[in-house]
Amino acid sequence: MTYICSNIRGDFPRFLELLKNIKFSDDDIMYIVGDTIDFHEQSMPLIRDLSVRSNVYPVMGAHERLALSMLKGFDSMLKNGKKPDSDYIEKMKLWVADSGKSTFEGFRSLNDEMKEGVLDYLSEFAPYEEAFTDKDEYIIVYSGISDFSTQRELDQYKADSFIDCAKELSEAVYFDDKFVIIGYAGGGDKIKRVGKNIIMDCTSSNKIACLCIENNKEYYA
To answer: Which parts of the chain have pLDDT scores under 70?
Structure first.
């Protein structure tokens, strides 16, 4: 089976509960649609677990993009002994105060080899993914596709086009013949369908949402 999961937000125990609930196995595939980290306390254990799962494919979200930038800068300063500039300091303060404190502290506790592994893994998050069933095609993105045109192939967009956090992107019209699965939409209580868009954001109800695209069965943890 093929599963789509969104907004784990560093809640590793709840993610493991979800995997148990859906009986996720090595024969299944899962795509994770952004905001995998931050907020909860176990972003680093979660990332390290996901990094060794060959059948789980993460999509870059706003929190991964910001965390990667902040953690790469921090790691570089540790290695080079350079002082951060004021712009970096301000961004770091905002990130830690907003949602990134546990991610940052978890990263600091790792040894050098583990830090490098986490940065490498976050760097590999794709801006979008494509999934297929026998009858349908799905485009998997974080927040929609900004500046969308039917005349452009997906690989012609910049990565930020799939990550820009504009709520209206989640309800825009994209393809006539493909479903677009969206991880972020400014909050929601359950999986929502708007035309051919499938919106996974259930953060208003503090839930991790999961969808099996072969049978459209919904799961929540």
So the answer is: 165
| Helical ranges in the chain per DSSP H | 12-22, 43-50, 62-80, 86-95, 101-108, 112-123
Reduce the secondary structure of 79-138 to three states and give it as a string: HHCCCCCHHHHHHHHHHHHHHHHHHHHHHHCCCHHHHHHHHHHHHCCECCEEEECCCCEE
Domains and CATH numbers, the chain: 2-63+124-220 (3.60.21.10)
Instruction: Report the C-alpha gap between 171 and 59 in whole angstroms.
Output: 19
Read off the amino acid at residue 37.
I
Which residues, including other chains, have CB under 8 Å from residue 160's CB and lie 6 or more apart? 146
At residue 97, the pLDDT reads: 95
Number of CB atoms found within 10 A of residue 55's CB: 13
For 61, phi and psi rounded to 5 degrees? Answer: -115, 180
Strand order in the sheet with 179-182: 129-132, 137-141, 179-182, 197-199, 192-194
DSSP 189: S
pTM here? 0.95
By the 8 A CB rule, do 58 and 3 touch?
no
- In this structure, what token pair is assigned to residue 152? 């452009």
pLDDT digits (tens, 9 = 90+) for 106-121: 999 999 999 999 999 9
